[in-house]
Amino acid sequence: MREEDELAVASRPETEGPDPDFVARVGAAIAAGNVELLRALVSDLHEVDVAALLEALDPEDRPKLIQLLGADFDFTALTELDETVRVQILEGLPSATVAEGVRDIDSDDAVYILEDLDDAEKQEILGQLPMPERAALQRSLDYPEESAGRRMQTEFIALPPFWTVGQTLDYIGETEGLPETFFEVFVVDPSYRHTGSVPLDRLVRTKRTVKLGEVVTPDRHVVKAVDDQEDVARVFERYNLISAPVVDEAGRLVGVLTIDDIVDVIQEEADEDVKALGGVAADEELSDSFWYIAKSRFSWLFLNLIAANLASAVISLFADELQRMVALAVLMPIVASQGGNAGTQTMTVAVRALATRELRASNAGRVIGRELLVGLFNGVAFAVIMALVVFARFGAIDLGFVIALAMIINLVAAALGGILIPLALARMKIDPAVSSGPFVTTVTDVVGFFAFLGIAALWF
Length: 460
Known about the structure:
Elements: H1 3-10, H2 20-32, H3 35-42, H4 47-56, H5 61-69, H6 83-91, H7 95-103, H8 107-114, H9 119-126, H10 131-142, H11 148-151, E1 158-159, H12 165-174, E2 184-188, E3 194-199, H13 200-205, H14 212-215, E4 223-224, H15 229-239, E5 243-247, E6 253-258, H16 259-277, H17 290-316, H18 319-324, H19 326-355, H20 361-394, H21 397-427, H22 432-459
Parallel strand pairs: 1-2, 4-5
Antiparallel strand pairs: 2-3, 5-6
């Protein structure tokens, strides 16, 4: 096989990740300082594949690869990396290299790369940028984390309403430095306040002599720079937006959000919610150290330990009954486990509905009633099943009645706890995705054990 063909095959990473032989060749080229071979191997890769390659390389080779490629390395690839890996790479690069790299990418990607660095490193990098670019990036970095201002792209086309369509088309066709991708031309007044936009399809279908002010459409979904990114993503999803203008507190146009930014937001927010339901920190990554992960998970496990001790205390109240009837100890975990699973189901639906704003005060009563009926129905169904199982195993009709009644009580309690606890936490401005789990577990365990053992103590 010719060398050119070998390079072509080697530079096509598999969907599961880069081919080990390809990674080895890149590593050898880095060690040899062979810039020409590195360019042949890496320069034509997509940014996502470059990120996968960086993660596969030895940590000390990652910044070397970027420095050897120089201007041929697209810093956008760093946005596809885990935060821990990205910060390690940036800390291993000279600030001048990082400054030069962020100059050549979109402002939203540059902000995404810089925001995780400490203030001293950020200022050192920003200090090496030309004043206009530095000011634009600093303004975005000054907005709160997870706000529209952090996500927006500051490159856009804004023109006065007295420009004609012909002037606008000529400007777009002849001016360098315009955004690579855009969907509309924004129209602003002399104070740079946003007045509306002209979609590109309308622009190219309008006569050249018509002024922008005659075809401008007021934007109904203008985003404020301080708006939470999750709320903005919900607006995009609800109204099927492709892009939206971003304005400051005075209504001046400061940026634009596009659908590719919002897809990232939706993915991040969904990832955070899934992690929160499992008691994992939102910023935990596969590349994080053992010590960081152990510390971040400790608090959640500690809350569950408290819940377990409360359940254990309830069990200890019925020690005499457990000693007299071993069957109670055998059957007791079934009641608590079934209630815990039912509570988790209800809690998951409730937390998601709260996150998407589907569950509101106007429909909360109906949803609570529905979940109560679901808990009651499943409680009765499983009560019948368990009564038959207990009779078959132990030949005790009265014991079957005890576990059946306890099953109904616990599944109803699980349904109520699974919906009411997230609602209460949300009303107290506490993230229900993070905090609901231990409370729901405590309710189902305590109610389950108390109901089963309490009924048994009274019955027998």
